[in-house]
Amino acid sequence: MVYGMPDSSPEPALFSDGDVEYIRLRSMEAAYDDESIAVFGTIGVSAGWRCLDVGAGAGSVAIAMKERAGSVWALDINAEHLRKLESVEFRVIEADLTAALAQSDIIPDGLDLVHSRLLFGLFRDPVNEILGLCSRLKPGGWIYIEEFDDITFSAASGSRRSIDLHRKVVDAKNAAWARKGLDSYVGRQVLQWIHFAGIERAEAFGSCKVRLSGTDQIRPWALSLPGMRDALIREGLTSDEFEEYREQLERPGFSYLSPTMIRTFGQSRR
Q1: Domain residues for 42?
Q2: Is residue 193 part of a domain?
Q3: CB environment 8-20: b (16+ within 10 A), e (fewer)
Q4: Are 144 and 113 in contact (CB under 8 A)?
Q5: pLDDT per residue over 154-211, tens digit each?
Q6: Dihedrals φ, ψ of 46, to 5°?
Q7: What is the pTM of this model?
Protein backbone atom coordinates (compact mmCIF):
# COMPACT_ATOMS: atom_id res chain seq x y z
CA MET A 1 0.00 0.00 0.00
CA VAL A 2 1.43 3.38 -1.00
CA TYR A 3 0.71 6.60 0.87
CA GLY A 4 1.68 10.19 0.15
CA MET A 5 1.14 10.17 -3.59
CA PRO A 6 1.33 13.76 -4.90
CA ASP A 7 -2.05 13.50 -6.63
CA SER A 8 -3.62 12.58 -3.30
CA SER A 9 -2.55 15.71 -1.46
CA PRO A 10 -5.37 18.00 -0.38
CA GLU A 11 -5.93 21.04 -2.54
CA PRO A 12 -5.76 24.51 -0.99
CA ALA A 13 -9.24 25.57 0.10
CA LEU A 14 -11.04 28.13 -2.03
CA PHE A 15 -11.78 30.10 1.12
CA SER A 16 -9.24 31.88 3.33
CA ASP A 17 -7.99 31.35 6.88
CA GLY A 18 -8.18 33.74 9.80
CA ASP A 19 -11.05 35.01 11.91
CA VAL A 20 -13.56 34.67 9.08
CA GLU A 21 -12.57 31.05 8.61
CA TYR A 22 -13.03 30.38 12.33
CA ILE A 23 -16.52 31.89 12.17
CA ARG A 24 -17.25 29.75 9.12
CA LEU A 25 -16.10 26.62 10.91
CA ARG A 26 -18.30 27.42 13.90
CA SER A 27 -21.26 27.99 11.58
CA MET A 28 -20.65 24.55 10.05
CA GLU A 29 -20.62 23.06 13.53
CA ALA A 30 -23.94 24.72 14.35
CA ALA A 31 -25.44 23.42 11.10
CA TYR A 32 -24.20 19.82 11.22
CA ASP A 33 -22.99 18.75 14.67
CA ASP A 34 -26.26 17.37 16.03
CA GLU A 35 -26.67 14.89 13.18
CA SER A 36 -22.95 14.08 13.09
CA ILE A 37 -22.81 13.29 16.78
CA ALA A 38 -26.06 11.28 16.77
CA VAL A 39 -24.26 8.56 14.80
CA PHE A 40 -21.90 8.05 17.75
CA GLY A 41 -24.86 6.51 19.54
CA THR A 42 -25.57 4.18 16.63
CA ILE A 43 -21.95 3.08 16.57
CA GLY A 44 -21.87 2.69 20.34
CA VAL A 45 -19.00 5.02 21.27
CA SER A 46 -18.30 4.47 24.95
CA ALA A 47 -15.83 4.98 27.79
CA GLY A 48 -12.35 3.68 27.08
CA TRP A 49 -12.54 4.03 23.31
CA ARG A 50 -9.54 5.44 21.44
CA CYS A 51 -10.81 7.91 18.85
CA LEU A 52 -9.34 10.11 16.11
CA ASP A 53 -11.08 13.07 14.48
CA VAL A 54 -9.41 13.92 11.15
CA GLY A 55 -9.77 17.44 9.78
CA ALA A 56 -11.01 18.47 13.20
CA GLY A 57 -11.49 22.18 12.39
CA ALA A 58 -12.61 24.11 15.45
CA GLY A 59 -12.87 20.97 17.57
CA SER A 60 -16.54 20.48 18.41
CA VAL A 61 -16.77 16.88 17.19
CA ALA A 62 -13.56 15.96 19.02
CA ILE A 63 -15.06 17.43 22.19
CA ALA A 64 -18.18 15.31 21.69
CA MET A 65 -15.94 12.27 21.27
CA LYS A 66 -14.15 13.08 24.52
CA GLU A 67 -17.45 13.33 26.38
CA ARG A 68 -18.22 9.73 25.39
CA ALA A 69 -14.85 8.03 24.98
CA GLY A 70 -11.42 7.70 26.57
CA SER A 71 -8.43 8.94 24.57
CA VAL A 72 -9.10 11.35 21.72
CA TRP A 73 -6.74 12.76 19.08
CA ALA A 74 -7.70 15.67 16.82
CA LEU A 75 -5.75 16.04 13.56
CA ASP A 76 -5.76 19.07 11.29
CA ILE A 77 -3.29 20.61 8.88
CA ASN A 78 -3.84 23.92 10.71
CA ALA A 79 -4.36 23.36 14.42
CA GLU A 80 -4.61 27.02 15.42
CA HIS A 81 -8.15 26.67 16.75
CA LEU A 82 -7.59 23.24 18.26
CA ARG A 83 -4.62 24.44 20.33
CA LYS A 84 -6.99 26.50 22.46
CA LEU A 85 -8.66 23.28 23.58
CA GLU A 86 -5.63 21.00 23.83
CA SER A 87 -4.89 19.18 27.12
CA VAL A 88 -8.33 20.04 28.43
CA GLU A 89 -10.24 18.01 25.85
CA PHE A 90 -7.93 16.04 23.57
CA ARG A 91 -4.48 15.68 22.06
CA VAL A 92 -3.75 17.70 18.93
CA ILE A 93 -1.87 16.45 15.87
CA GLU A 94 -0.95 19.28 13.50
CA ALA A 95 -0.03 17.54 10.28
CA ASP A 96 -0.91 16.95 6.66
CA LEU A 97 -2.86 13.70 6.60
CA THR A 98 -0.98 12.19 3.66
CA ALA A 99 2.40 12.91 5.28
CA ALA A 100 1.21 11.68 8.68
CA LEU A 101 0.07 8.35 7.24
CA ALA A 102 3.46 7.88 5.57
CA GLN A 103 5.08 7.77 9.01
CA SER A 104 4.50 5.28 11.80
CA ASP A 105 4.66 7.53 14.85
CA ILE A 106 2.17 10.35 14.17
CA ILE A 107 -1.25 8.72 14.00
CA PRO A 108 -1.83 6.07 16.68
CA ASP A 109 -2.76 2.47 15.90
CA GLY A 110 -5.44 0.35 17.51
CA LEU A 111 -8.18 2.96 17.21
CA ASP A 112 -11.79 2.20 18.03
CA LEU A 113 -13.11 5.03 15.86
CA VAL A 114 -11.81 7.28 13.09
CA HIS A 115 -14.09 10.13 12.01
CA SER A 116 -13.87 12.86 9.39
CA ARG A 117 -16.31 15.46 8.07
CA LEU A 118 -15.98 17.39 4.83
CA LEU A 119 -12.33 16.47 4.38
CA PHE A 120 -11.98 14.09 1.44
CA GLY A 121 -13.74 16.39 -0.99
CA LEU A 122 -10.50 18.41 -0.80
CA PHE A 123 -8.43 15.50 -2.15
CA ARG A 124 -8.00 14.69 -5.83
CA ASP A 125 -7.94 10.98 -5.02
CA PRO A 126 -8.54 10.17 -1.35
CA VAL A 127 -8.56 6.38 -1.64
CA ASN A 128 -5.03 5.91 -0.26
CA GLU A 129 -5.77 8.16 2.71
CA ILE A 130 -8.97 6.27 3.51
CA LEU A 131 -7.15 2.94 3.23
CA GLY A 132 -4.44 4.29 5.52
CA LEU A 133 -6.92 5.42 8.16
CA CYS A 134 -8.73 2.09 8.04
CA SER A 135 -5.41 0.36 8.65
CA ARG A 136 -5.08 2.25 11.95
CA LEU A 137 -8.29 0.71 13.30
CA LYS A 138 -8.17 -2.14 15.74
CA PRO A 139 -10.08 -5.30 14.72
CA GLY A 140 -13.73 -4.36 15.04
CA GLY A 141 -12.96 -0.62 15.01
CA TRP A 142 -15.19 1.84 13.19
CA ILE A 143 -14.61 4.29 10.33
CA TYR A 144 -17.15 7.13 10.00
CA ILE A 145 -16.89 9.58 7.10
CA GLU A 146 -19.22 12.48 6.28
CA GLU A 147 -19.05 14.10 2.85
CA PHE A 148 -21.20 16.37 0.71
CA ASP A 149 -22.83 15.25 -2.50
CA ASP A 150 -24.05 18.19 -4.56
CA ILE A 151 -26.90 16.29 -6.19
CA THR A 152 -29.46 18.46 -4.34
CA PHE A 153 -27.61 21.77 -4.27
CA SER A 154 -29.07 23.28 -7.46
CA ALA A 155 -32.66 22.91 -6.27
CA ALA A 156 -34.13 26.25 -5.14
CA SER A 157 -37.35 28.20 -4.69
CA GLY A 158 -38.03 31.88 -5.30
CA SER A 159 -38.22 34.18 -8.29
CA ARG A 160 -37.05 32.85 -11.64
CA ARG A 161 -34.09 35.23 -11.48
CA SER A 162 -33.06 34.06 -8.00
CA ILE A 163 -33.29 30.39 -8.98
CA ASP A 164 -31.30 30.89 -12.19
CA LEU A 165 -28.62 32.89 -10.36
CA HIS A 166 -28.30 30.26 -7.63
CA ARG A 167 -27.85 27.54 -10.23
CA LYS A 168 -25.23 29.61 -12.04
CA VAL A 169 -23.28 30.04 -8.80
CA VAL A 170 -23.48 26.33 -7.98
CA ASP A 171 -22.40 25.40 -11.50
CA ALA A 172 -19.45 27.81 -11.25
CA LYS A 173 -18.46 26.35 -7.88
CA ASN A 174 -18.55 22.82 -9.30
CA ALA A 175 -16.53 23.92 -12.34
CA ALA A 176 -13.93 25.53 -10.06
CA TRP A 177 -13.75 22.30 -8.06
CA ALA A 178 -13.35 20.24 -11.25
CA ARG A 179 -10.63 22.57 -12.54
CA LYS A 180 -8.63 21.70 -9.41
CA GLY A 181 -9.23 18.00 -9.98
CA LEU A 182 -11.82 17.77 -7.22
CA ASP A 183 -15.22 16.08 -7.17
CA SER A 184 -18.47 17.68 -5.99
CA TYR A 185 -20.10 14.26 -5.60
CA VAL A 186 -17.71 12.54 -3.18
CA GLY A 187 -20.43 11.53 -0.73
CA ARG A 188 -21.88 8.76 -2.89
CA GLN A 189 -18.44 7.17 -3.40
CA VAL A 190 -17.28 6.67 0.17
CA LEU A 191 -19.20 3.43 0.74
CA GLN A 192 -17.32 1.79 -2.14
CA TRP A 193 -14.00 3.06 -0.84
CA ILE A 194 -14.39 1.72 2.68
CA HIS A 195 -15.72 -1.59 1.34
CA PHE A 196 -12.54 -1.85 -0.72
CA ALA A 197 -10.59 -1.25 2.51
CA GLY A 198 -12.17 -4.34 4.07
CA ILE A 199 -14.78 -2.55 6.17
CA GLU A 200 -17.81 -4.68 7.02
CA ARG A 201 -21.33 -3.89 8.24
CA ALA A 202 -21.03 -0.67 6.26
CA GLU A 203 -23.94 1.60 5.49
CA ALA A 204 -24.54 5.11 4.22
CA PHE A 205 -27.45 7.51 4.42
CA GLY A 206 -27.94 11.05 3.24
CA SER A 207 -29.79 14.10 4.48
CA CYS A 208 -30.30 17.60 3.17
CA LYS A 209 -32.17 20.62 4.51
CA VAL A 210 -34.00 23.56 3.06
CA ARG A 211 -31.95 26.70 3.72
CA LEU A 212 -33.96 29.91 4.04
CA SER A 213 -32.48 33.23 2.93
CA GLY A 214 -32.26 36.02 5.48
CA THR A 215 -31.66 33.56 8.34
CA ASP A 216 -28.67 31.91 10.01
CA GLN A 217 -29.41 28.77 7.99
CA ILE A 218 -27.48 30.19 5.03
CA ARG A 219 -24.49 31.28 7.13
CA PRO A 220 -22.06 28.42 6.29
CA TRP A 221 -22.53 28.92 2.55
CA ALA A 222 -22.59 32.72 2.73
CA LEU A 223 -19.34 32.79 4.71
CA SER A 224 -17.64 30.56 2.15
CA LEU A 225 -18.43 32.83 -0.79
CA PRO A 226 -15.92 35.71 -0.30
CA GLY A 227 -12.98 33.32 -0.43
CA MET A 228 -14.38 31.71 -3.58
CA ARG A 229 -15.08 34.96 -5.44
CA ASP A 230 -12.12 34.89 -7.85
CA ALA A 231 -12.62 31.21 -8.66
CA LEU A 232 -16.32 31.75 -9.39
CA ILE A 233 -15.61 34.70 -11.65
CA ARG A 234 -13.03 32.67 -13.58
CA GLU A 235 -15.84 30.21 -14.31
CA GLY A 236 -18.09 32.86 -15.84
CA LEU A 237 -19.89 34.57 -12.97
CA THR A 238 -19.67 38.37 -13.21
CA SER A 239 -18.73 40.62 -10.30
CA ASP A 240 -22.22 42.12 -10.36
CA GLU A 241 -23.81 38.67 -10.26
CA PHE A 242 -21.58 37.69 -7.35
CA GLU A 243 -22.71 40.70 -5.32
CA GLU A 244 -26.33 40.21 -6.37
CA TYR A 245 -26.20 36.61 -5.17
CA ARG A 246 -24.71 37.57 -1.80
CA GLU A 247 -27.51 40.11 -1.33
CA GLN A 248 -30.06 37.50 -2.41
CA LEU A 249 -28.96 35.21 0.41
CA GLU A 250 -29.51 37.96 2.98
CA ARG A 251 -33.02 38.94 1.81
CA PRO A 252 -36.21 36.99 2.59
CA GLY A 253 -37.96 35.30 -0.31
CA PHE A 254 -35.48 32.66 -1.45
CA SER A 255 -34.61 29.13 -0.34
CA TYR A 256 -32.46 26.28 -1.61
CA LEU A 257 -31.61 22.71 -0.75
CA SER A 258 -28.28 22.19 0.95
CA PRO A 259 -25.84 19.70 -0.52
CA THR A 260 -26.72 16.21 0.68
CA MET A 261 -24.54 15.21 3.60
CA ILE A 262 -23.87 11.50 3.20
CA ARG A 263 -22.78 9.76 6.40
CA THR A 264 -20.96 6.50 5.80
CA PHE A 265 -19.77 4.20 8.55
CA GLY A 266 -18.70 0.61 9.02
CA GLN A 267 -16.64 -1.76 11.09
CA SER A 268 -13.29 -3.37 10.36
CA ARG A 269 -12.96 -7.13 10.34
CA ARG A 270 -12.54 -8.68 13.76
Answers
A1: 6-268
A2: yes
A3: bbbeeebbeeeee
A4: yes
A5: 999 999 999 999 999 999 999 999 999 999 999 999 999 999 999 999 999 999 999 9
A6: -150, 175
A7: 0.91
